[in-house]
Amino acid sequence: MTSAKSADSQNRDIDQMLKDKMPALGIDLGGTKIGCAPVADFKVIGEPSKVPTPKGAENIINTLVGLIEEARKKHILRGVGIATAGIVDTETGEVIGSTGNLPGWAGTHIKKEIETRTGLPVHVDNDANAAAYGEVKALGLSDKTCVVAVTLGTGIGGGIIMKGQLFRGAHYAAGEIGHMRSNLNNHRLCTCGLFDCWESYGSGRGFRATAKELLTNVTVDQTPLAALLPDPPVDKVCAAAQEGDIIAKRIVDAWHEHVCAGIVTLAHTLDPDCFIISGGMAKFVDYDFLKELVIDKCLPRVGERLDIHRSSLGDDAGIIGAAQIALDNLVAG
Amino acid sequence: MTSAKSADSQNRDIDQMLKDKMPALGIDLGGTKIGCAPVADFKVIGEPSKVPTPKGAENIINTLVGLIEEARKKHILRGVGIATAGIVDTETGEVIGSTGNLPGWAGTHIKKEIETRTGLPVHVDNDANAAAYGEVKALGLSDKTCVVAVTLGTGIGGGIIMKGQLFRGAHYAAGEIGHMRSNLNNHRLCTCGLFDCWESYGSGRGFRATAKELLTNVTVDQTPLAALLPDPPVDKVCAAAQEGDIIAKRIVDAWHEHVCAGIVTLAHTLDPDCFIISGGMAKFVDYDFLKELVIDKCLPRVGERLDIHRSSLGDDAGIIGAAQIALDNLVAG
After folding, report:
1. Angle between helices A204-215 and A246-270 (to 10 degrees)
2. Which residue in A114, A159, A220, A236 is a FRET match for B134, CA 20 to 30 A apart?
3. ipTM of this predicted complex?
4. B172 to chain A nearest CA, in Å?
5. How far is A80 from chain B (nearest CA, A)?
6. Are strands A24-29 and A80-84 parallel, antiparallel or unpaired?
């Protein structure tokens, strides 16, 4: 085939091949730190750099521009993908819904500011959506009818991917699954100000709240965990459960029930092909036990057919996902 | 334009126009009765006929065939749309998930059986999905990103419509929103065998269970409603609330909170443009109050922008929706 091509056409092919190998910079902007790395083919190039998140929108923008300029010294970038907490209008690249972790960030026109200052094409997305996109593409699940990615961290985030595309809802707020209402008795106040959000039970914060509740009337004679009050760390409780501490096991089981509750709700609503669990709490999930619980708590023919995968991208999901959306959408040409 | 057309072409146009006016037969198959009417342009032609649902799959099929043959005496039908309880494989027209209300119905190849016996094209769908489709088309909401139709009846059903198309999930079970888990304490056993499904609180059955709970320690001196135990009827409780009975009002408010809980969960998951509320309980909803509650219990920018519509098709939604899906999909040519 190439023999029939002109020299011009061959040069264009080579240009395109080189361009295809060029990375986008992925940036994961969290409440405490900013992670950043060039990404190509769903892989970060080198070790992601991490800097603390400064206070105030202007300082954050300056830090992001600094990170981009730094990366450009070593890489020719095709664009920038930014994953941020909050509800993001992905057309304009503006944060339209505030997040408690980034005060003053809502209303910032991230895309416009950074494109103006760097000249690079920028895509901005919600962090859980970006991570979901990365996970689905990396696991080769783009042809699935529906995949729900659940980020179990300090809170709970989510992303819904249908046939390889993010489902963003009517106002960019789809996938805010941490705030599904999972209890009716105003038992736990969520950090968002609502009662009984799923994340006030199923997240890391929820785990600790459950541990605190269950340990309240327990003495150190009964379990050494009681000494860890008022804020028992998740890893210590999980380790104790592994070692046979029956009270620790009750806490871990209760947390699995709480994680299960949200998955059951999502399964009956969306009937996805599968779930992907990521985030800092993913390593504490007993996947066989969770799957058993889900089957038990779902209607027949709903639970059995659900796969529950563990994240393949780990902590880099936000960085990789954000960069990959940028590569797939902004700079496809 | 027509002047340039041949006589043949004009005849074809007239054929098509006549065909466009030909109705499909819509059938709504419930646990106690079967409703049936010819439908064209989102309207039933004449008064729907109603017959009791017989026992057993073979008897049901015979009854459906009888209804179709009866309708054919008066109408030239383009096809048949059947809305049934249960999870339906809409490609094969088979009921794949059983429903307690129609024992022995799961496994029936409805489409194949009825097409063979009548020679008409048949589309079979889940009843809540069919109703949702009818409502969305009738309200002119086909261009919306996402509409969630909620059927508040004895139980709760749902249908999710994205850009005018039903979202069926990976295994035809999407929209089973009555079985979202809405409480964590195994407080109410749902008729499906699971605990704390949304429908065990937000449906008509849920309303009566709440009324029963709240009235347990109340005497007839405090409210005449206490005399209605053990199964206080919804209409009587709602009428008493309207007339100022404070205890009745608490029951009605609690039910609104329960309905709200599921809407909040769906709003944070799907971020729809709007909800449509239908079913026998829709007339008891105070829509302004429900909207207030939803705004209060949703994240900022999620609740405010949601519209909550009341059904425009009423009791005929299943019949109209089923026929309309058949018209739009089966016999579009």
Report:
1. 140
2. A159
3. 0.91
4. 7
5. 27
6. parallel
Instruction: State pLDDT tens for residues B210-240.
Output: 999 999 989 999 999 999 999 999 999 999 9
Range of the domain at A10: 2-134+316-330
Distance CA A25, CA A79 (A): 6
d(Cα A195, Cα A172) in Å, to the nearest integer?
23
Q: What are the pLDDT digits (tens) for B228-279?
A: 999 999 999 999 999 999 999 999 999 999 999 999 999 999 999 999 999 9
* Shortest distance, CA B96 to any CA of chain A (angstroms): 8
Chain-chain contact of B185 with A183 (C-beta, under 8 angstroms):
yes
In contact, B82 and B27? CB cutoff 8 Å: yes
Helix, strand, coil % over all residues of chain A, rounded to 5: 45, 20, 35
Residue (of B85, B50, B84, B43) closest to B67 by Cα position: B50
Q: Chain A contacts of B172, Cβ < 8 Å?
A: 271
Identify whether residues A120 and A268 lie together within a single domain: no
CATH of the domain at A59: 3.30.420.40
Question: CB contacts < 8 Å between A and B, how many?
Answer: 169
Chain B residue whose CA is closest to A188: B184
